[in-house]
Amino acid sequence: MRELASGVHMLSGLPPNGINVYLVDDVLIDAATRQAERRITRQLRGRTVRAHALTHAHPDHQGSSHAICERLGIPLWCGRDDVAVMESGMVENPKAPGWLNAAQRRWWTGPAHPVDRALSEGDEVAGFEVLDTPGHSPGHVAFWRESDRVLILGDVLNNMHVFTGLPGLHEPPAIFTPDPARNRASARRLAALRPELVCFGHGAPLRDPDRLSRFVAALPA
User: Fold this and answer.
1) With 80 as the cut, is the pLDDT of residue 101 above it?
2) CB-based contacts of 74: which residues, under 8 Å, 6+ apart?
3) Contact (Cβ atoms closer than 8 angstroms) between residue 54 and residue 197
4) CA 23 to CA 9: how far, in whole Å?
5) Per-residue pLDDT, 102
6) CA angle (129 as vertex; 207, 171 as ends), nearest 5
7) Lower Cβ count inside 10 Å, N or C end of the chain?
């Protein structure tokens, strides 16, 4: 686990930066796949964790949520429009081919879990402001701390190619994104904040607001 900014820690994983999990003060942000429970709990040992929040309810972010919340006895929070899928466990992507959904159900997807707090625009989580950033999922949220311009943006953008693992800014694949146009609008909103540190769901942290702005400006309308 390494500290990226005051109180913001990125948990280690293999491959590095592949599926990212963050500890922000005492709130765990995202929980990778169902296979990640042991590596997450090992790194949280000895630390106080009072809640678990999701950027969005996709299998590579909610996979260990149920196990972590049960093991630590902590509440689960997620975006209001992702509550239903998190609580039902029906997190399949309607745009993805059937074989891919089946593979995710077998290896990645976590069980349903009750949501204790539905997050909405303007809520506060561990000193970060919740921003509604739909598109990649209906209830996708990002977390923004204006004091030092730190942004945790989930999968609004990726800083690696999720199929090849090669570094670089990308939109999330269309097969995983129900509304790409709406997701681009969310990306434009976040780039306009001029974050000094961007923490992604997939890919290494970015400390270059100009690069982020150039990439987002080149996206299709």
Assistant:
1) no
2) 28, 49, 50, 51, 52, 68
3) no
4) 5
5) 77
6) 50
7) C
